[in-house]
Fold:
Amino acid sequence: MKKREFIKAAIIAGTGFIVGNISGRLTKSGKKNKKVIAVNGSPNENGNTAYALSIIGEIFKNENINFQIIHIGQNDIRGCIACMRCHNEQSVCVHTTGNERNWIESMKSADALILASPTYFGGMTGSMKSFLDKAFYSSSKYFRHKTGAAVVTTRRTGASMTFEGLNQYFTINEMPVASSTYWNNIRGLTVDDLKQDGEGIRTLQNLAKNIIKMI
Ligand SMILES: Cc1cc2nc3c(=O)[nH]c(=O)nc-3n(C[C@H](O)[C@H](O)[C@H](O)COP(=O)(O)O)c2cc1C
Structure:
């Protein structure tokens, strides 16, 4: 089975993975392609946050960046219960199984991590926070020194608080943060609305270019 077919099958099997540009592992100069992994905290796999990430993906495609998106989706994700067992279990959160464990493993292999979430009552989604608390508490040492970037979607307001919340995971963990020409937010109720937000689109495009510069 070819890699692309395998990935399609994996999506159908509900692993929550979608892979963007996987073409070519080596650049023309023989260097390994850089890998960026985005975590999409939306329950909607084809929603506004996915669209925001696709804008970034378009820029990455031009530079042969290997871009993968982890969709938290509608998985049942519980929060960290402070059992501290990850300290004794080789940094593995024993309360993550299947998808979640695989997501954390793949995040370790990235050159940059994008944390993307819709705004829910002025913050990231509950599933996103539940996942990130466990991922970063158990495995932060593997993420240290990777470039980090936060991406936020809103219908209207609360983006700054969501943005701040996502950035907390980077700035406590020696992760240089990629920024843009505005705070990384695109807004509207539907994808069609987002397509009208020219400044939001430019902000995400500039963010992608800056991530490329940093990695
Ligand atoms: C439970 C819930 C809470 C929300 N809270 C806010 C909010 O505080 N501010 C806002 O602008 N939009 C809010 N929204 C709208 C979403 O943030 C917005 O539609 C987002 O773009 C959806 O992204 P998605 O399509 O990727 O899920 C909320 C939506 C839901 C379902």
